[in-house]
Amino acid sequence: GELENMLFLVADLLHNSSEGDQSLSELLLRAAKKAKNVSAFSSAAFYASNGIKRLPGLWQDDVDLAVQLHSIAAEAERCLGNLDTAKAFCNTIIDQEHIGIFQKIGAHQVMIDILTHNDEFLVSLDYSLDVLQAISCNFPRSRTGQGLAAISAIARAKSDAFIPRAEALDGLKIMSDPKKKYAMEVMVSATHSAFFSGNPILMLSILTRRIWWTVKHGFHASSAPACATMAGLYIHALGDWKRGRRMANLTFQLMAKGKSLGMTSGEPSARCRLSTFVSPWISPARSCLSFMTESYKMAMRQGDLDNAFKTITVYIFLQLFSGKDLRAIEEDCRRYTPPMVTTKHGKWGIMINLAFQAVLNLLGKSENTTVLTGAAMGEEDFLSIETDVFQRLQNLKLMKRYLCAVFGEYERGAENSLKHGREWSSAFPGFFVTGCDAFHQAICFYGAARNVQQKQRRACNVDPSRFFNNSDMKKKLRTYKCQAQKLHGQIETWASKGGSPNHQHHVRILEAERAALAYSNVTSAKVTDEVCKLYHQAIVDSARGGYMSHAALAEERFADYLFFSAHDEQEALFHLQNAIRRYSEWGAEAKAELLKQKFLNWSNGTQISAMATH
Hints:
There is one protein chain. The protein has 614 residues and is mainly alpha-helical. The chain is 77% helix and 0% strand. It contains 31 helices and no strands. It is elongated. The termini are far apart. Mean pLDDT is 90; it is low at 606-614.
C-alpha cells in the first residue's frame, strides 16, 4: 500500500546506504520491477545494479534474488541499447554452474534478443535451438529432418481441426506448466530468427507447435503473435487466403482473451505482425493505418519499444505507398524519428529517414528526384553503415524504383527492377511492401516498353530499315513486356484470389497500361474508346479509394496515351491538367512542376520528340 506508492522515493533515499543487507536488495528489486513495468529502463537498470552491489555474496545468500536482479538489469540495459553491459549481466547468470537451466532462461532470452538486434539471425537460431533442446523441446537441425517435420506441420495446418472455433477459446486458461512457458518464450525468438535467416520450413514447424500448445496447454503471451504470423504463412507460403483470414480472426479473438485474462504483453507483437504481413493484404489501407497507430500507442504504453517502432515504420511506408497526403507524412516522420534515436533504436529511424527523403523529393524540398540525398539522409551515408548492409541496399533500391515510377524515369526503374527486383521479394517474403513494389515495377516496365515503342516509331519514320536492324531495341521491348506481364499477373492473383482491396485499383491501372501498350500503333475509334474506358475506370477506382498518387499517375499515363498514340492533343492536355492538379493535392509539387513544363511543351506543339522519352 503506502510503501508501494512511495517505493521510488524510499529506494532513492536508501540506495546510497553503506550497509548491505538482503532486505535493501529486495526493496531495490521491487523498485526495478516497477520501473521496468512503466518503461523507465534507466531507473530499472539503476535500481537493479545497485541491488547487486549491496550484497557481494548475493549468489551464496539468495540465488533467486540474484537471478532476478541480474535478469532485470540485463533486460533494462538491452532496452537502453547498452548491449555490452547487458551481455555482462547475462554471462554472470549463465556462468553459475550450481543453478538450473530454467533460472537461466531470462538471461538466454536477452542474449538471443541481442543477436537478433544485431541481425545475427543464423547464430540466434542456433542459440535458440540449443536452449530449447536443453529443456527437451527438440526440433530437427538437418535440412532433411526439417523437411520431414515441415510435411507433418503442413498436414496439421491444413486440417480443419487446427484452427479452433471461437467457442473453443471460452474455457482457455493461462498456461501454467513452467517448462512449456519457458519453451514458448524461446520459440518466439526461434521463429523470428528462422524467418530472417531464410528457413521458412523450420519456421512453420515451430509455429504450428506454438499454436498447438496454446490449444492443448493454455494461453501464453506469445499465443496471439504465433497466430498472426501463421496467418501470414497461410497467405504467402501456402496460398490459402481463406485459412489466412480465419487465422487472423483467431488472432483478434486471442488478443481479446488475453485482455480478459489480464495478459496483454503479447498484443503489441501480434498487432505488429498483422500490420506487416496480413492486414494490408486483406483490409483497406485506411483501416490498416488507424489500426497501426493504435498498435504503436499500445506498444509504447507497455514499453515494447521494438514492436512500437517496427509498427510505426510500417505505418509510414504504407502511408507513402498508398498515396496519403505527403505533408502529413512529413510531419509524422519528424514526430516519430527522435524517440527512436534517444532510445537507441536508430535502425528504425534510418528506415523512416529513407521514406522521409523520398517525401522531401516529392514535395520539392530537395534538388533531387530519384536520388535519395538531401536534408533527411544521404545515399552514401546510408550505405556506409556497417550493419545490415544487404537489407539497407534492398530498401534503397526499392525506394528508388518507387520514385522512378512517380517521376516517370521508367527505363531507369525497369533496369533497377531487372537487377534487384527479385532480391527484395526473396529477402522479405510476405511483407506488404512486396505488393506495392510489384506495382511500381510493373508501371516502370510498361512505361519503359511504351518509351521504346515511341523510339522505334521515330526511328522508322526517319529510316524504315533501322526498325528491322535494331535488335537491341527489340530485345529490350520483349524483356520489358514480359516482365510487366508477369508482375501484372501476380497482382491480378492477389486481387482476385485473395480479394486484396489495396490491389484492385492497381489491376485497373495495369489493365489500361497493357491495352495502351498493345494498341499504341492502332488509331481506330473503337480501340481508342476501349483504352479510354479502362483509364477512366482506373482513375475513378483510385480516387474513390483515396489513393491520391495513383489517381494522379493514371491521369498522367492516360494523357501520354492520348497524346502519342491516339493523337488527341486537346483531350491529352485536359488529362495532363488533371494530373497536375491531383499531384499538387497530394503534395508532390516537384512532380507537378515537371508536368507543368510538359504541358507548356505540348501546348506550344514544340519539342515533342524530346518529350517522348520523358
